[in-house]
Amino acid sequence: MSSSCQPQSPAVAKSEVVVEGECPLLAATFAYWDNILGPRVRHIWTPKGDQVMFLSDGEVTFLANHTLNGEILRSAECGAIDVKFFVLAEKGVIIVSLIFDGELKGDKNTCALSIILPQTELAFYLPLHAICVLRLKHVIRRGRIWMQKGYNIISVLSLEIVSIMELLASMKTHSVPEEIDITDSVLNDDDIGDSCREDFLHKAISSHLQTCGSSIVVGSNPEKVNKIPLTLGLEHSLFTVVFNLLPPQDSTGSFVLPFRQVLYAPYPTTHIDVDINTVKQMPPCHEHSYNQRRYMRSELSALWKTDSEEEIAPDSVLHTDQAFTPDLNIFQDVLHQDTLVKSFIDEVFMLRPGMSLRSSYLAQFLLLLHRKALTLLKYIEDETQKGKTPFRSLRNLKTDLDLKEEGDLNIIMAMAEKLRAGLHSFVFGKPLYTSMQERDVLATF
């Protein structure tokens, strides 16, 4: 995946990462504050191949130093990770830098893990900023343990840096286009049965909306697989759509999913299999966040117990903590029925294909969902005095907003979650309910 090359200076080591496709990342750096020499760069990662913009090692070092200047008097809680976003117009770059404290050679230092992109990629990067920061934060937590043990942090950081470079390159090459023609989607088919069953399409769209617009589409037929993302992507102006197309298969022919990446994603995910027309989904946002934190703690605990600096594959450490056994069956059936998507599908196919009416009707449907989400947020704000008191009137909310079907409530809650992060946890409160327990609770209202 990556190959080390001779550093350009004795002080800075450098790795070139082989990435398929065009990688918009110019470089990644790990730097630290030396009490005698000031900011110093410990390692540089750069993608190998043709790039639209090129930075010399000296320029990369200058930019990395820029992120640490002024951090000598940094005052932060133990374990805190500060995220800083720089737009340097004079250099034509943007820098995302995570500042944290760590131990190097027995001394406590202020460190910075940064990624550098051309300013022209700002619009491309911003929708991916949250997930990149989440992944970098967790690798820093792992790196801190490695530093505390006196191990080489670069080996740990390299795993995630390479993965992020591959992610950005993949999104640059294969992401859903900003403008999608409805004629390329299933919603333009004259006969829905020709490409996929209506109940399958209904479940796929409904579950996709319930999981905050995050989906994995798998299948052996590229044409069928690609048509589903284009269909779900029609509403991507309101959601972030994530797809993993044609993943590898094991000896039994089953698709092998990137378990760790799915679990550490910001939102729960829908799993859509176009070969057998099945749709499954992960638990809702508050459960997903809870499970995610448990897995993270399990991984960090396993790393702390290691007695060797030998590299541990990230997926394997999830199984080494006896206190918490991961549930690999993280996808469950879509159990909640809805009326919103059902009505939309029934009505959109009453319109003749090839006409702009279907596109207009889709736009009106998305506007309806957006307005319902805003109304839900306003309703909860009023009922809780803007979060000062617990929310206790879920039954009234469902009645007043005409969200009596659980699927309808889940769809609008998911859209509202994208507008106001943490809504699920606030509404359902603590202690955390599992999906089964949550359904029992809701049934009592």
From TrEMBL:
Protein name: Uncharacterized protein
Family matches, as PANTHER family: GUANINE NUCLEOTIDE EXCHANGE C9ORF72, GUANINE NUCLEOTIDE EXCHANGE FACTOR C9ORF72
InterPro entries: C9orf72
Gene Ontology MF term list: guanyl-nucleotide exchange factor activity
GO CC term (a single one): autophagosome
Gene source species: Gouania willdenowi (Blunt-snouted clingfish)
Top-level taxon in the UniProt lineage: Eukaryota
GO biological process: autophagy; endocytosis
